[in-house]
Design goal:
Radius of gyration: 20 Å
Largest sheet: 9 strands, mixed
CATH class of the largest domain: Alpha Beta
Strand content: 15-25%
Helix content: 10-25%
CATH superfamily of the largest domain: QueA-like
Shape: globular
CATH topology of the largest domain: QueA-like
Number of strands: 15
Order of helices and strands: EEHEEEEEEEHHEEHEHEEHHE
């Protein structure tokens, strides 16, 4: 099998094209129609959507998993980024502070005392003297992506209006375009709205660091869809409805469920060139960072011409990444 060089996912992204603020009204964001290269306002999505359409959104909530504190003895800055709660007093996390991060190391900070139990490639398992949930509730802040300048005023805009339950450490950014007003408008136009839950991990946004796309391994993420909702989506598709995945997380979840028939579980589905889509007809997604596994999805759907499409978007001053504009891809 011929492998795909990872440089097929690289492109030059100007800092000027990275959105630093979310649109005050998400409906004012723009949507690029990939097939025609028409650019419309997001509020006009109804005008290009199929008459019989099902929009599936990810309702997983971004938790306040970023803890910024200081070491008691030295006063040095320290950051804990919680990725996964293992038990009441244990979590998987990223650690950022000066000095060695060795197994067995104990550190006392202004808010918590913790010990490194295990060190993996770039993540750590730690035990704490305070419950992880309490740390998140009392001290956690919203984990804005590193390319967005940190500002407390932006935190509320990094969460979708419809989020409920779940444990994500990053936003389903395509969902940021769908406020409750937009969802209500779609329903009044007889569009069907359904929800899944996929807990987004930090690995989603990690650049591929292998020479070939196929050699990259995607991390596991937990998902859930109500059995009745899934059955209804299948029935609607049989009846001629087009299935719109709002975000790559929804796309991966729906494609996982139709393959495994499991409504709840963990998925490491990696969509790469040659993947045969079985359920989703359209994908609404933001513009992704160079060399990310999310761009592998774009390549799989749109082919090598995706670079030209992204260049066209930048030339037309569309905004990229989490707070930016979106693109609509036809899959099948």
């Amino acid at each position: 099998m011929n492998k795909t060089p990872t440089n097929q996912l690289s492109y030059k992204l100007s800092k000027d094209n990275i959105a630093q603020e979310r649109y005050k009204n998400p409906e004012d964001s723009r949507l690029l129609i990939a097939d025609t290269k028409e650019i419309i306002q997001f509020k006009d999505l109804i005008s290009v959507a199929s008459e019989k359409a099902v929009f599936v959104l990810n309702k997983s909530t971004v938790r306040n998993v970023r803890l910024k504190t200081n070491k008691i003895h030295s006063g040095g800055k320290l950051e804990i980024f919680i990725l996964n709660i293992i038990s009441d007093y244990e979590c998987e996390c990223l650690l950022n502070f000066s000095g060695k991060k060795t197994k067995g190391l104990e550190i006392t900070t202004n808010i918590v005392k913790f010990k490194i139990i295990e060190k993996n490639k770039d993540t750590y398992k730690i035990s704490t003297d305070i419950k992880i949930d309490a740390l998140i509730e009392n001290y956690g802040i919203t984990p804005l992506p590193p390319y967005i300048k940190d500002n407390v005023k932006k935190y509320e805009y990094y969460k979708t209006d419809f989020s409920s339950g779940g444990f994500s450490v990053a936003a389903s950014t395509a969902g940021l375009h769908f406020n409750n007003k937009m969802i209500s408008k779609l329903e009044k136009q007889n569009k069907i709205i359904k929800y899944i839950n996929l807990d987004i991990g930090i690995g989603t946004f990690k650049p591929i660091d292998t020479n070939f796309i196929e050699d990259h391994k995607v991390h596991n993420e937990n998902y859930f869809i109500k059995k009745n909702d899934y059955k209804e989506i299948l029935k609607l598709k049989e009846d001629g409805y087009k299935i719109y995945a709002v975000g790559t997380t929804v796309l991966r979840t729906l494609e996982t469920v139709i393959k495994t028939k499991n409504y709840k579980g963990s998925t490491d589905l990696y969509i790469k060139p040659g993947y045969q889509f079985k359920l989703v007809d359209y994908l609404i997604t933001n513009f992704h960072a160079p060399n990310s596994s999310l761009l592998s999805i774009v390549l799989s759907i749109y082919g090598k011409e995706w670079k030209e499409l992204y260049m066209y978007a930048q030339t037309n001053k569309l905004k990229f990444l989490s707070f930016g504009d979106a693109v609509l891809f036809k899959i099948q």
